[in-house]
Amino acid sequence: MTSYTKEQGRRLMLALAFLALLAAPGAAPAQTGAVGDVIRPGDVLQMVVPGRPDLDRALVVDQNGSVDIPQVGEVRLTGLSLGEAGVLMKQRLRLIAPTLDAVVLSRAEAASFRVYVLGQVGQPGMHDFPDHPSVWDVLRAAGGPLKSADLRKARVIREEAGQAGTVAMDLSRILEGEDFPTLALRDGDTLVIPSLADGVSGVPAERGVKVFGGVGVPSIVLVDEPTPLMDVLMLAGAPTADADMKKILWVHTAGEVDLARVVNLRAYLEKGDPAGNPLIHPGDTLDVTLSRPGKVANSFKFLLGTAAALAAVYVALNQTN
Fold this sequence. Notes:
The chain is an alpha+beta fold. It has helices spanning 6-23, 82-93, 135-141, 229-235, 265-271, 295-320, and strands at 44-48, 57-60, 66-69, 73-76, 104-109, 113-119, 125-129, 154-160, 163-169, 190-193, 208-213, 219-222, 227-228, 243-254, 257-263, 279-280, 285-290.
């Protein structure tokens, strides 16, 4: 049977007590970091070394994910929990303090994710987030898109391996709660919301009526429900002076079949004929044709031109004589 001296027994009891202390809940703060509470570049950590106040200090995690301790050099902590980082720091500090028992790490200031927003939003500029923001988080923080925003051509500018790259995305349905992009933005990303070209409404074709021809603003007019033809034309800037109100071409999609017909809006305006002001549905197409001068008008213009030419020749002859 093994015998122990009093000194050996005292050391054994101290070792068992130390192991029990480590196993006790909350006994080792440096090793109880919450799962997922990882260290990120930009974090400010407070390091406390019990019994060695000369080693206590604030540590800033640089962009490479490392902290600098003068006595031991750089230590990479990014991706570790506070508990894991405390164990690693204890191992490194034992190079200069072999009897070190514990290192307590806490987060003094969490890093923020900075995303820049440019273009057609309510509040362009830099916005801070406590964690990786989604595109919706950033768009909402920036005050939402303006009416002039071309959400179909949004893009994210991101630096990868020292080079800027672009991620294109269509956000045209995000305000309806559909087609949310899954891309999580990173610190330093830039979200660009460009402006619509002049005369372009930015409304998806399936959510409006395509109107072109003799109207003030040919575009896709936003229509959420069946709307009278006259109302749709007014939303498109109203018919122009040379619009042929008797010949408006209308294409309506019924299921998988496209139905085309000619509408006489003049009949509605002059006689109140409801057939001249039908209900136009989202996804339909309207072509407001332009009126053509009649044969009499064309002949009159020709005669005027001919008379002017003859008069010019007559004047020239008289001047030479």
